[in-house]
């Protein structure tokens, strides 16, 4: 033990520091027991910010932080033997001699004082309230000399009091002392080895573990342990050596400490623990904040020395000579020694900064590190000590040892502080080690990763680079910034390592970037994409699809088909109406990657629509295919413009010229004539496909097409795709535009055939097309007699154009002769003559009938009417009075008519039908929409107007009354 270093980590404190008193240490500044305490101090106890001292005159004094007497009181009549302040309650327990005159009862009493309740005892003194007084000795517990005393607070107000005696017994009192609800029992330690007498109890100590309560008992020749939680209490002997009084203490881990001349022993529940060989008679042993306190008396000089041992760090934290110490106690964070002459020595621990400064001055960095670690200093303080030690070693050029210290500061010391010291090329190995540790602890930044990888590449240490990058064959989490590692490895030419990192981190886009841009391994890239899940594969193809299509177009199309149709996974293949259709990528997401390869885009979309019949993107797909099919040079300029590609770049690659992304009609025709046979055949095939798509995506059963009609019209018109235009105009019922197409092409037979198809009103056609066709031939300015005759035949058959209009229209063509319309006019005149004759006959008939009606009405107005019926028309019985005769020559009994005397029951229905027809006609006259619908739907509008006039509907006018009458 003499090899232990000695330090001055403690110092004497002035009495009353913080509450009054002088300056620094030394005997001159030592305090003393107040003069008010006249008796000899027999016991003392700390707790709750006060020190209680008991005297041989029976008084107890309570000292404050400045060792001034707060107040004192007479606790016992004769003397105070032992006392203890409780921690959980402000209670003082004392054992003293009350010097009873009666010899029959014991004078030793145990008293409990409540220090919170102070009772007045006159004008100058106060005393706490005595809660309870107990006789220590009774008939069952014979009297003996008390050698030790200790109180354990279980759960207030329950106390466990142990009283050690010189006869080898321990008396225990347990319960609520204040209410005297207690139990007493005694424990016996074994007798002396020679069996002559019992050995005194020199020390006791409580150990509490949960609900288990144990009691250490020390005699001069043994150490025992009582288990109080079992009944009866069980004793076990821990050792056959003991100690004298005052050399017993308990550590903060509740181990028993006993001091003997040769050593200090520690005891646990299962026996002797560590032993520390400190020579000298141990007058006092104590424990303070993890330090072992020993007052050792020199046998020759009989002078005492206070040693404070730091057992963890194996050093003497303080050593100083002391006088004749009678008691010592710990309170307020100080070690307080009460001398025999009533002087008080107060010793306090220096702060951590002072202790470290002391060690740093002596360059004792290892001791400083052990000190901060043992005293559980905060990590930042520990790191600061390690940094200083590292700086010390670095200054001595012990770089490896310095780095080992800097590594321990990771997490608290800024890494740049260390990195700057080791940037020299000669120290690159140390720097590499430090950066590796940073990454191991997950504290490395992107810059640290860059620096470490640069270290590896400069050292050309492939093995370490493999260990860092591949992390034991890929097991474990990535401990560095992925993008930084990939960037550095790519820049240094370590592409395989960069690929490994990207693959392990799941950064598929970076993995493919290396494969395609750095290594040009297109087949491997395609294989890698095939192994990805659909979502991720779609994202990577979107990003790198242009490169793949440029170098491996067919394989790329195959992968895209698998992604968009689930062809490769029969378990997920869905039906036509499955919601799964919405979960897979749309082919339109990948259109932009084919910007330089429209032929493969066409192939991709064709295969897709064959596999998927009800895609949500059908309209967009058909629009794109129409652009590809109808375009003369297999391009789709709208898409290339959207993606920021100049149209002239595309045409330069193909060796063609365009204007603003569109070919002009004139240049198209010129270029088509120059294209070779293969290109011409390709155009024909594509347009055949385009027409088929237009028709299949807009069948007669569909109300709307599965493509954008406006876009289709623009495409067909821009690229002069006549068949497509005709189909679209016909579907849109733009029959006049269909006729215009044939007119522009000068296709007379096509015109006539188109009019036969589209001018048939029975099939929903427009008959006015024949008039337009006749007008065209009339304004043609060339001989078209054959076509005109064919048109006139159909016009005559359907009677869609009046003859006068035919003559007026055809008369404008100077190349047509009268012979063209001679037969037509002759037939029409003959028909008209027959109609006129029939109309004249009808007029004569209606005039005769009208004249007859007028005469009959006049006769009814001017001449008498003779009624000759003798029978009732209703009941056929003989007509008698009262009777009713009607002008229609019907007669009825009045009783047969009932309430209706103004109408003939026989003629009334016919009359009503006529009146209802008249009212209906008048209502129709007010329904203008009906009139115009009939007018538009009739072949001869004039006949509709004439019919309205004939019924007297249109000719009727209502004259408003004058002057409100």
UniProtKB/TrEMBL annotation:
This is Vacuolar protein sorting-associated protein 11 homolog. GO terms for biological process: intracellular protein transport. CHCR repeats lie at residues 406-557, 575-786. The keyword Zinc-finger applies. It comes from the Eukaryota. Residues 829-863 form a coiled coil. It is a peripheral membrane protein. One of its GO terms (molecular function) is zinc ion binding. It is found in: Endomembrane system; Vacuole membrane; Prevacuolar compartment membrane. Its main location: membrane. Residues 872-907 form the RING-type domain. Keywords: Coiled coil, Membrane, Metal-binding, Vacuole, Zinc, Zinc-finger. Belongs to the VPS11 family. Gene3D superfamilies: Tetratricopeptide repeat domain. GO terms for cellular component: CORVET complex; HOPS complex; plant-type vacuole membrane. Core component of at least two putative endosomal tethering complexes, the homotypic fusion and vacuole protein sorting (HOPS) complex and the class C core vacuole/endosome tethering (CORVET) complex.
């Amino acid at each position: 033990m003499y090899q232990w270093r000695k330090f001055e980590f403690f110092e004497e404190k002035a009495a009353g520091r913080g509450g009054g008193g002088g300056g620094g240490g030394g005997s001159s500044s030592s305090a003393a027991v107040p003069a008010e305490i006249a008796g000899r101090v027999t016991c003392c106890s700390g707790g709750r910010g006060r020190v209680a001292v008991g005297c041989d005159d029976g008084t107890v004094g309570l000292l404050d932080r400045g060792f001034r007497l707060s107040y004192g009181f007479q606790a016992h009549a004769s003397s105070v033997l032992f006392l203890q302040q409780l921690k959980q309650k402000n209670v003082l327990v004392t054992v003293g001699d009350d010097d009873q005159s009666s010899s029959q009862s014991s004078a030793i009493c145990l008293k409990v004082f409540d220090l919170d309740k102070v009772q007045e005892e006159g004008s100058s003194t106060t005393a706490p309230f005595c809660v309870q007084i107990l006789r220590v000795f009774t008939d069952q517990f014979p009297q003996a000399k008390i050698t030790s005393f200790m109180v354990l607070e279980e759960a207030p107000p329950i106390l466990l009091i142990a009283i050690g005696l010189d006869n080898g017994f321990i008396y225990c009192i347990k319960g609520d002392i204040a209410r005297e609800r207690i139990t007493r029992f005694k424990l016996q330690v074994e007798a002396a080895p020679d069996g002559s007498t019992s050995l005194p109890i020199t020390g006791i100590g409580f150990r509490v573990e949960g609900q288990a309560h144990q009691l250490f008992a020390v005699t001069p020749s043994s150490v025992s342990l009582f288990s109080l939680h079992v009944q009866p209490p069980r004793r076990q002997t821990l050792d056959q050596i003991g100690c004298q009084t005052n050399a017993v203490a308990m550590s903060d881990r509740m181990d028993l400490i006993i001091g003997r001349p040769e050593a200090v022993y520690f005891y646990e529940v299962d026996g002797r623990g560590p032993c520390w060989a400190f020579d000298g008679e141990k007058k006092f042993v104590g424990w303070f904040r993890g330090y072992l306190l020993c007052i050792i008396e020199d046998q020759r000089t009989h002078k005492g020395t206070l040693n404070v041992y730091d057992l963890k760090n194996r050093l003497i934290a303080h050593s100083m000579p002391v006088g004749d110490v009678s008691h010592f106690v710990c309170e307020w964070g100080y070690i307080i020694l009460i001398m025999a002459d009533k002087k008080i020595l107060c010793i306090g621990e220096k702060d951590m900064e002072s202790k470290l400064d002391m060690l740093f001055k002596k360059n004792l960095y290892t001791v400083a590190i052990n000190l901060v670690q043992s005293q559980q200093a905060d990590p930042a303080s520990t790191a600061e000590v390690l940094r200083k030690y590292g700086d010390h070693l670095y200054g001595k050029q012990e770089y490896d040892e310095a780095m080992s210290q800097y590594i321990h500061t990771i997490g608290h010391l800024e890494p740049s502080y260390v990195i700057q010291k080791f940037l020299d090329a000669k120290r690159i190995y140390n720097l590499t080690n430090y950066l590796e540790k940073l990454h191991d602890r997950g504290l490395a930044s992107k810059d640290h990763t860059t620096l470490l990888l640069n270290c590896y590449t400069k050292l050309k240490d492939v093995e370490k680079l493999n260990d860092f990058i591949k992390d034991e064959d890929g097991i474990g989490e990535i401990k560095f910034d992925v993008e930084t590692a990939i960037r550095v490895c790519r820049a240094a030419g370590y592409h395989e390592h960069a690929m490994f990192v990207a693959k392990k981190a799941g950064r598929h886009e970076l993995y493919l970037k290396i494969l395609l841009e750095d290594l040009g391994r297109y087949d491997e890239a395609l294989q890698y994409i095939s192994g990805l899940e659909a979502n991720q594969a779609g994202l990577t193809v979107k990003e790198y699809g242009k490169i793949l299509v440029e170098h491996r177009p067919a394989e790329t199309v195959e992968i895209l088909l698998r992604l968009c149709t689930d062809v490769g996974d029969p378990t997920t293949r869905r039906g036509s109406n499955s919601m799964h259709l919405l979960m897979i990528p749309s082919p339109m997401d990948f259109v932009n990657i084919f910007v330089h390869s429209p032929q493969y885009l066409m192939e991709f979309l064709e295969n897709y629509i064959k596999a998927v019949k009800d895609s949500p993107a059908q309209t967009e797909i058909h629009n794109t295919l129409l652009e590809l099919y109808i375009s003369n040079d297999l391009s789709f300029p709208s898409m290339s413009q959207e993606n920021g590609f100049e149209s002239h770049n595309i045409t330069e690659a193909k060796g063609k010229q365009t204007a603003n992304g569109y070919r002009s009609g004139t240049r198209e025709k010129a270029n088509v004539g120059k294209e070779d046979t293969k290109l011409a055949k390709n155009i024909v095939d594509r347009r055949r496909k385009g027409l088929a798509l237009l028709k299949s995506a807009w069948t007669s059963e569909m109300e709307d097409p599965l493509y954008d009609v406006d876009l289709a019209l623009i495409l067909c018109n821009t690229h002069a795709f006549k068949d497509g235009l005709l189909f679209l105009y016909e579907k849109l019922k733009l029959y006049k535009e269909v006729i215009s197409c044939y007119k522009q092409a000068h296709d007379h037979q096509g015109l006539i055939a188109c009019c036969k198809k589209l001018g048939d009103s029975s099939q929903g056609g427009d008959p006015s097309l024949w008039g337009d066709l006749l007008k065209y031939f009339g304004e043609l300015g060339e001989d078209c007699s054959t076509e005109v005759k064919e048109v006139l035949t159909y016009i005559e058959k359907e009677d869609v154009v009046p003859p006068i209009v035919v003559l007026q229209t055809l008369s404008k063509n100077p190349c047509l002769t009268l012979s063209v319309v001679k037969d037509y006019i002759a037939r029409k005149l003959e028909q008209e003559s027959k109609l006129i004759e029939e109309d004249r006959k009808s007029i004569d008939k209606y005039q005769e009938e009208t004249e007859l009606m007028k005469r009959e009405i006049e006769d009814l107005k001017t001449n008498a009417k003779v009624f000759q019926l003798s029978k009732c028309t209703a009941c056929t019985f003989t007509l008698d009075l009262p009777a009713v005769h009607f002008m229609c020559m019907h007669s009825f009994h009045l009783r047969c008519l009932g309430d209706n005397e103004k109408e003939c029951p026989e003629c009334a229905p016919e009359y009503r039908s006529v009146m209802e027809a008249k009212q209906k006609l008048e209502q129709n006259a007010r329904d203008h929409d009906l009139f115009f619908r009939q007018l538009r739907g009739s072949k001869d509008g004039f006949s509709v107007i004439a019919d309205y006039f004939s019924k007297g509907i249109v000719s009727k006018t209502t004259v408003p009354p004058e002057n409100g009458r």
